[in-house]
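Summary for the lay section of the report: proteins are chains of building blocks that fold into shapes. Here we show the chain for DUF1330 domain-containing protein and then a coded description of the shape we predicted for it.
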Amino acid sequence: MVAYVIVEPMEVSDAEAFQAYRPLGAAAVKAHQGLYAARGADAVPLEGDWTPQKLTLLQFPSLDLARGWYDSPEYRAARAVRAGAARLRLVAFDGTGG
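The coded shape description reads as follows.
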């Protein structure tokens, strides 16, 4: 049962701190069996009023592993580095339509 996490960067106020966060976040994704299906991809709005500039799509073997990644000590440490440097939107969902 595959799961996905969509990440939308909303605002980056400290590019240097955000760059320091990225490898920490990537290591946490890998440590929790996740992978990047797309990273920093340009978004092309097709319908509605959602107009993100860039999107990242993470894939995990299950929604439980995605949740475990987000709540993990590794990703909490990455989020601490990102704190005050960038605001993101993240949403996880079951990719099987479950």
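Put simply, here is one thing we learned. The chain has three helices and four strands.
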